[in-house]
């Protein structure tokens, strides 16, 4: 259950509207019910394993192989949203829930924005560590902001670290604008580093789209039926 105070009324309405439009995607969290008392109460699909953030920290990084199916499922969620001109704007491990089936679903759509055509916006979005260069600089942005955030997220769930981070705000922004990424030993194959590098392009127009990501060689080892790394049977 998600509880939002009255001050979050706009966020609650946005999330419920987008979730109602996303019922056909198995990779976006489903809303089961909701009501208003003093607060807004939203009942979401059961996620007994919590989030990818919890799993990543518990395992100290999932590694390239274990993260592969999760990455494909999140990409499918983004593709679904982007085809409907919806930006998530806050993709991060804490917003990816692990469902009872062991598969994942993208959640927390309170910051999402539905666009008209190729509309671009400039309002700040994302967290400190996942915010892309165009947002830091105050430039207008579009759906490619989700791709940068997901590139940061994929790096994190693989390695339990961030490719770009500094506690000093100005130095952090400088590192983001520099775009240099160092890969640790958690990255066992060239495919994962190649994919992340193409997602974390400084120029938003050079980033892969969600459709292009799904065609990347990183996902070639996945074969149907897709079995999640962790379920109730092997947890």
UniProtKB/TrEMBL annotation:
Coiled coil: none annotated. It comes from the Eukaryota. Residues 1-219 form the Protein kinase domain. Gene3D superfamilies: Transferase(Phosphotransferase) domain 1 (1.10.510.10). One of its GO terms (molecular function) is protein serine/threonine kinase activity. Keywords: ATP-binding, Kinase, Nucleotide-binding, Serine/threonine-protein kinase, Transferase. Pfam families: Pkinase. PANTHER family: RIBOSOMAL PROTEIN S6 KINASE (PTHR24351). This is Protein kinase domain-containing protein. It comes from Biomphalaria glabrata. The gene is 106060923.
């Amino acid at each position: 259950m998600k509880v939002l105070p009255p001050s979050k009324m706009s966020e609650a309405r946005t999330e419920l509207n987008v979730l109602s439009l996303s019922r056909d995607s198995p990779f976006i969290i489903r809303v089961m019910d909701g009501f208003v008392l003093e607060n807004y109460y939203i009942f979401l699909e059961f996620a007994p394993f919590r989030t990818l953030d919890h799993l990543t920290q518990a395992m100290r990084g999932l590694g390239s192989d274990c993260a592969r199916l999760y990455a494909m499922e999140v990409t499918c969620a983004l593709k679904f949203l982007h085809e409907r001109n919806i930006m998530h704007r806050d993709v991060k491990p804490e917003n990816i829930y692990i469902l009872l089936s062991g598969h994942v679903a993208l959640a927390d759509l309170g910051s999402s924005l539905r666009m008209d055509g190729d509309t671009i916006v400039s309002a700040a979005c994302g967290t400190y560590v996942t915010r892309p260069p165009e947002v830091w600089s105050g430039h207008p942005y579009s759906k490619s902001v989700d791709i940068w955030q997901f590139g940061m997220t994929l790096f994190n769930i693989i390695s339990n670290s961030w490719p770009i981070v500094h506690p000093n705000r100005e130095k952090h922004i400088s590192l983001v604008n520099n775009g240099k990424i160092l890969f640790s030993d958690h990255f066992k194959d060239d495919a994962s580093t190649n994919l992340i590098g193409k997602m974390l392009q400084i120029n938003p127009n050079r980033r892969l789209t969600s459709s292009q990501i799904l065609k990347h060689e990183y996902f070639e080892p996945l074969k149907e039926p897709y079995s999640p790394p962790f379920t109730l049977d092997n947890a």
